[in-house]
Write a structure and sequence with these properties.
The protein has one domain: Vaccinia Virus protein VP39 (Rossmann fold). 40% of the residues lie in helices and 24% in strands. The chain has helices at residues 7-17, 21-28, 32-44, 60-69, 82-94, 133-142, 161-174, 178-181, 190-195, and strands at residues 50-54, 74-79, 101-105, 118-124, 144-155, 199-208, 211-219. The protein has a 7-stranded mixed sheet with strand order 3-2-1-4-5-7-6.
Length: 223
């Protein structure tokens, strides 16, 4: 796994990219990022739930979750970049969903919530830039209640060796331009959750061959 950009660099990159982020990410992934968000929400969120969207940026996933939880549910949208949350607030207001979404500035690696605080936890493309993505998903799992579901989508290595080699060459070039790469690189997080006792409920690879995503959902067992 390629080393991450320094955390302060990641914040600066996303601060500058906030206004163009959704268009850029959709273009580079040929729209598969939206498919991943929909899959995660469909597999994890139900009406009336209290949901955490961690590293939720401009609110694309939080807006889907807010529609799914309905008037009796709530979505906490946490992100480390104020400019991304500013965009999210505007989008929520335009869709008349601001009453269901609470933006919070915070770090995925140090969540300001008690253990078991949420019925569902979401992370769509927010683990990729983390300097310790495994620690990040473990922290998300900590705040998930027993019986709740954690839905994750992130960049993954191509499965075919030849495609993986070509992808590494392309990534080496793109990585020189943080405004283009957005600090994202393939990561692996699912094994750590399974090792911690999580029950795998859904797993699917999506995306283009050179830039695939892994979408998965795990459930926290009731003990």
């Amino acid at each position: 796994m390629r080393p991450a950009l320094p955390p302060e660099k990641v914040v600066a990159v996303y601060d500058r990219a906030a206004r163009r982020y959704d268009r850029q990410h959709a273009l580079l992934t040929l729209g598969s990022d939206r498919r991943g968000r929909r899959l995660v929400v469909q597999q994890t969120v139900a009406p009336g739930m209290r949901v955490l969207d961690a590293g939720g940026g401009t609110g694309s996933t939080a807006l889907l979750a807010a529609e799914a939880v309905g008037p009796s549910g709530r979505v906490i949208l946490l992100d480390l970049t104020p400019a991304m949350l500013w965009v999210a607030r505007r989008r929520a207001a335009r869709q008349h969903l601001e009453a269901r979404i609470t933006p919070v500035i915070g770090d995925m690696l140090r969540l300001p919530f008690a253990g078991g605080a949420f019925d569902a936890v979401l992370s769509t493309y927010s683990a990729c830039p983390l300097y310790d993505p495994v620690a990040g998903v473990r922290e998300l799992y900590r705040v998930l209640r027993p019986g709740g579901r954690l839905g994750v989508a992130h960049s993954a290595e191509p499965e075919h060796p030849l495609v993986r080699r070509l992808a590494a060459m392309v990534e080496a070039v793109v990585w020189r331009f943080p405004a283009l790469s957005l600090g994202c690189r393939p990561v692996e997080t699912l094994p750590a959750l399974v090792q911690a006792g999580a029950i795998l409920r859904f797993r699917k690879h999506i995306g283009v061959p050179l830039w695939p995503f892994l979408v998965y959902v795990v459930e926290k067992p009731v003990t």
